[in-house]
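At this stage, I put together one protein's amino acid sequence and its backbone structure tokens, which the following lines show:
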Amino acid sequence: MGELYELFPKLPKNIRQIGERDQVLKLYVEDYVNTYLKQLRPPKGSDLRVGLLLGSREIHEDVPYVFVDGALEMETVTKEGEKVAFTEDAWKKAYQEVENRFPKRTVQGWFLCGNPGCTLNPLNYWREHSHYFTGKNQLMYLNSGLEGEESVYITSSDGFYKLRGYSIYYERNQMMQDYMIARKDVPRAEAGVNDRAIQDFRQKMEERKGEVIRHRSTVGALSMVCTALAITVLAGGVAMFNNYKKMHQMENVIASVLPEGVVRSGLLASGKEDDGKWIEEAAAKVYPSEETARTETEVTAGEKPAAVTPETMEERDNETEETVIKSQAPEGVTEETVLENEKSTSAETVSAPSYKVYTVGEGETLYGICFKVYHNVNRVDEICRINDLGDQNSIYAGQKLLMP
């Protein structure tokens, strides 16, 4: 099995053959150059248009490969009829134009284009070709007008050798396109070129160009979508961070107004403890009564409380109990009577009804107290009468009640 190899030199992919394949010289002419030469018509008062063929060449197995991708017309070289006379000024101007418009290209020969119907004989230009285009295999391209006869010659040992054919290849030849646009007096009459292969190739090029444009549009749209998503995610993160800060500030405010002693760890915890813990603890807390609040206010205002000892605590309890008994005793019952009843509770015979003192707790009701003490609610009216209560719901925490 033979080894795979790449031909040298590297040939263009899209090629159209004109005539037969020649074994002496392989000529490849770019499509824009071919179109330019076929459309090049002499102006009025002249029979010829003359210029240079530009490109490059390579040798492979003693066969020259010539690639022509530029054509530059020379000014002031044609004379009356079909005569050509190169001048030093014309050569200088031509080489300056080559450097500006076709850099890194060398002269591969020249072209002569006449009016339609004329017959261009290569022998008429043999001297000019041998004098100005010295070297082996220099090209002479002859074209007798639009869609007329064309031929390519090279020098040989016995005169001129006519090539059997050449190849046209297609590529993006920006240099030649710019030159053709600059030559406004040489329009490209593509409508007159009735070549199916050229039209198909250019149609494919337009389709590929459209695909590239659509691909770029798709990439641009995806970039915009990704940018919008990134902005949305960033905005969401900023909003979450702001909400977290607001919630944290609110927790600090709530914790700052809680009564002293309420456990705040449940409120400020990170979710490991029950968030309602502090509420339950606050509900179980017995808040100070109005009298205690007033006392605390007076102390805060600057009054220095007296030292509290066990003896003074006992005296205060006794005084408070006597005061409550005196203030809440029913009509006809004096303080002495109540005290005597309490002192004679151990006697076998009781001369007067005795009462017990009950301190109302936080959240208790009269019905609940009655059921707690007597296991029924039959004495609610009696307790109201003894304590002079106009409403069963008018009791408060810390109130002293006489219980029959």
